[in-house]
Design a protein that fits this description.
This protein is of the alpha+beta class. The chain folds into three domains: 86 residues, Uridine Diphospho-n-acetylenolpyruvylglucosamine Reductase, domain 2; 149 residues, 2-Layer Sandwich (Uridine Diphospho-n-acetylenolpyruvylglucosamine Reductase, domain 3); 119 residues, Uridine Diphospho-n-acetylenolpyruvylglucosamine Reductase, domain 1, CATH 3.90.78. The chain is built from eight helices and 24 strands. Strands 7, 8, 9, 12, 13 and 14 form a six-stranded antiparallel sheet that branches. A five-stranded mixed sheet has the order 1-2-3-6-4, covered by helices on one side. A hairpin with a 5-residue loop joins strand 12 and strand 13. The longest helix has 19 residues.
């Protein structure tokens, strides 16, 4: 796993304040910094808690011709067993209410939130404060800065509905800019930031409603809550309870949560799937007459049952969409198991499931599960 060393570097760059310091660790196991619990050592790891420290860390990487890699809570990534040849910049810490800048706009409120605080900490704060709009995202692990990258969503809510703008720092030019929501090109689990990793998110501005209830139309929430309009505290407890029973909370298993995205099918492909199954597949309406199909349904129909475990890797006993490992498995084992699922679903239904987490090689490149077929 490599040797772990600690270095305290005094950075002499003219553009930095005098006596600025970075604490840099070498050979840190990345398995400790990802919820899947797999991965080899990082070449270097730097913890940052401010934009000034972020700039220092990026300059450190640039001066040494090393790739910077931004890491939050590690809830949506599978590291290679060989580790990562990069300066891993860890941007994650618990929230302090003084971190958030609040502006009141009539019945609305705008929150300017640093990227490095926990998304769930923010949601808990919003529920307590009576700010509605994000409660259905309760329990999703990760930082505020990571949420726009994949446009995280759950139970009929996506983060894009609240985002007004995103502040970024370009890791190459070291210039800051603000990007309005409409220019982020949000879609289902996607944004421009996935194709522009040099844009490091430093702040997210959100607009929420000042009310202590939310209107709900997602069937799972309705079944539990029993009504369409739910107070924020009850809604948060309901969402957390559902996620806990599905094994989708970060403290349940070594897991990335949902491992595959729900495929979105055209009406033609949806009808072909129904003919293949011999019955109508469960679905949710998508954009432009498309259908969002539960990946968990396809996985189970392909013969992968909940609770299946082989060589320390398998499916959560609570939800077929969550790949778990028992704490002793390797990254290779996790990826090989995921590839089995992807290959069989593709063979049976002609649908290629797309991984939700980032599958990262030693060099820092995105890997394809097809290499494990």
């Amino acid at each position: 796993m490599g040797t772990r060393n600690h270095l305290t570097l005094l950075l002499p760059f003219a553009s930095m304040p005098a006596m600025s310091r970075l604490n840099i660790e070498e050979g840190v196991s990345l398995a400790r910094h990802g919820t899947m619990g797999v991965g080899g050592p990082a070449q270097c790891l730097v913890r940052v808690e401010s934009e000034d420290q972020l700039r220092q860390a990026l300059l450190f990487a640039n001066e040494r011709d090393l790739r910077p890699f931004i890491l939050g809570e590690g809830s949506n990534i599978v590291f290679s067993d060989e580790g990562l040849q990069a300066v891993v910049i860890l941007m994650a810490r618990p929230m302090d209410s003084t971190d958030i800048q609040i502006s009141h706009l009539g019945s609305k409120v705008e929150l300017s939130v640093p990227a490095w605080i926990s998304l769930d900490d923010l949601i808990a704060f919003c529920v307590e404060s009576g700010y509605a709009g994000l409660t259905c995202l309760s329990g999703i692990p990760g930082t505020v800065g990571a949420a726009p990258i994949q446009n995280v969503g759950a139970y009929g809510c996506e983060i894009k509905t609240a985002i007004q703008s995103v502040d970024v720092l370009d890791s190459a030019s070291m210039l800051s800019e603000g990007i309005e929501a409409e220019n982020c090109h949000f879609g289902y689990r996607r944004s421009i930031f996935q194709k522009q990793p040099e844009k490091v998110i430093t702040k997210v501005t959100l607009r929420l409603s000042m009310q202590r209830e939310e209107d709900i139309d997602h069937p799972q929430i309705l079944e539990k809550a029993g009504r369409h309009r739910v107070d924020l505290g009850t809604l948060r407890r309901t969402v957390l309870d559902i996620r806990r029973k599905k094994g989708m909370l970060a403290d349940c298993f070594h897991s990335c949560g949902s491992f595959f995205k729900n495929p979105i099918l055209t009406s033609h492909n949806f009808e072909r799937l129904n003919q293949n199954l011999g019955k109508k597949c469960p679905s949710y309406p998508g954009e432009e007459s498309s259908y969002k199909v539960p990946a968990a349904f396809l996985i189970e129909r392909a013969g992968f049952r909940k609770g299946l475990l082989q060589k320390g890797v398998g499916l959560s006993p609570h939800h077929a969409l969550s790949i778990i490992q028992n704490g002793r498995a390797s990254s290779e084992s996790v990826l090989a198991f995921a590839a089995q699922i992807q290959k069989r679903v593709d063979r049976l239904f002609g649908i290629l499931l797309e991984p939700e987490p980032l599958l990262l090689s030693k060099e820092g490149d995105r890997m394809s599960l097809k290499s494990y077929w």
